[in-house]
Amino acid sequence: MDSILSHNGSADPSNFLLSICFAFSFFPARFLLDRFLFRRLAIWLLHSKARAIPSRIDEATIVKCSESMWKLTYYATVEICALKITCNEPWFRDTKEYFRGWPHQELRFPVTLFYMCQCGFYMYSIAALLMWETRRKDFAVMMSHHVITVILIGYSYITRFFRIGMIILALHDASDVFLEGAKVFKYSGKELRASVFFGLFAVSWLVLRLIFFPFWVIRATSYELVKFLDLSLAYDKLVYYVFNTMLLMLLVFHIYWWILIYSMIMRQLRNRGRVGEDIRSDSEDDE
Fold this sequence. Notes:
By secondary structure, the chain is an all-alpha fold. The protein is about 70% helix and about 0% strand.
């Protein structure tokens, strides 16, 4: 554990013991927050709606609203932490700095802690998706996304690509904040706020995941990284192609979900600005 507690440590694989601790800690954290805060808040919000809701639909909505509150709390917290860690770093704004000095870049303790927390959260999310979270039509895609994310976090940490890894995590969590906020407002009947947050979510998804991610991040891993690798060596070639393949797989997921987002945008326009139900829902009852 010495490498974890040091301010400037190495990318020691044993640090992932901490991610397992994080993963297990999310189970009681979710249970306690659900029982004593999120569920009560969801019931209060739903019962403040103007129209009555049948008890069967109401219970399903309470569960999904509580689920969104949990995710909103997590994503907002880690996004703030990610920006605090990275915003003053020279590589936050300059893609050429992502790999400068690699593989001997300084690894600070906050980066290690953030990495282990995120890795633990996605390990927890895999279990949650399998056991109790609302299962939607994109279950297989979501599960694949979580698995690849865990592998990508671990791989980028071990290969010391943690600068670009921090950027990727920060830009992905931003849109999730708006998505979960839109869901909470939608479930509680706040249509205007839901529409605003959904609009912010759609714009952030387009800008961060479909423009910045491929044309800045993947471009950097495709062209800037080559300057620091010898692709005639088997190990360097493996590092290059495995990392970029996983990033491209994430991009495919982004495009798939953008098609669903676009469908919801069209539905919202037809509804004169009212946010439609989650297009991923399996049935009308789930909506």
